[in-house]
Automatic annotation (TrEMBL):
It comes from the Bacteria. SUPFAM superfamilies: Actin-like ATPase domain (SSF53067). PANTHER family: BIFUNCTIONAL UDP-N-ACETYLGLUCOSAMINE 2-EPIMERASE_N-ACETYLMANNOSAMINE KINASE, ROK (REPRESSOR, ORF, KINASE) FAMILY. GO terms for molecular function: kinase activity. Keywords: Kinase, Transferase. It comes from Klenkia marina. Gene3D superfamilies: 3.30.420.40. This is Glucokinase. Belongs to the ROK (NagC/XylR) family. InterPro entries: ATPase_NBD, ROK.
Amino acid sequence: MSAPAVVGLDVGGTTTKALVVAADGTVVHQENRATAHAADPVPGLAAELDRLTAVAAAQGLAVVGAGVVTPGLIDEATGTVRYASNLGWRDVPLRAALQDRSAVPVTTGHDVRAAGLAEQLLGAARGVDDVLLVTIGTGIAAALVGGGRALTGGTGAAGEIGHAPVRPGGEVCPCGQRGCLEVYASGAGVARRYETRTGRARSAAGVVGGLDTDPVAREVWADATSALADALVTATLLLDPSVVVLGGGLAAAAADLLEPVQAGLSAGLTWREPPPVALTRLGSLAGCLGAAAMAMASAGRDVELAGWTAVPAR
Ligand SMILES: [Zn+2]
């Protein structure tokens, strides 16, 4: 009899990441593909699940469940993606439609919440409850994980910290508000603010790379980390997280991100200790590992799931 495994799929605006994870937590297959932007995304994703099931079978593994996570506004009760702007999806009944076409049980969820679950299960917040994960990539979003689940909110829109107005009356955000955290601290925001000042296009990573030599890069990055610290002051006072984990692409800035954010958070909290702030240990695979973990939980394999420790290379 084949050993059990699960599939995790993290569908992003640009890249879809996939993992096959054996029930003991060993990552046996990992791949990234360009996301196909089809009018109906379901047939392509169902074919992807079939293919990954075959990949597992070729290694002597039987897939007992698949987890599929996406960005956007998600009705978790029905597994419907209400709206995902960077996928171009509206009212996609993802879980039901995939389940109709797939031989394995399918569970669906939100990418950042899944990443938060993964960081708590086997990442930077292992064994800690009340974890606030903030992912800083093209945009910024957060997940609060406690008691083994991530807060979804009344409309499924919990965690949109990127649109918290940290600079009231500040620069305009594409969402229509002013002074949103994303305007200053997201990858897109950092790149845009650098280009506005210099006329030179540079990615956020490029801005970080210029911190030693370029005063404009230093100024834009200081604005980013101070906006992020201010958002975390409010989040800390509201939620009292045991740890704050910084993830997403900009976590690659490492100490250049962590140190000013820690300092700003400490300075902003006068009467209480700041929570520890840590960098992601799972990197860009956090959402995908979370999807795989959700599939394990939904297959009733919580005992094996609790033993997962494998952290694949970033
Ligand atoms: Zn906004």
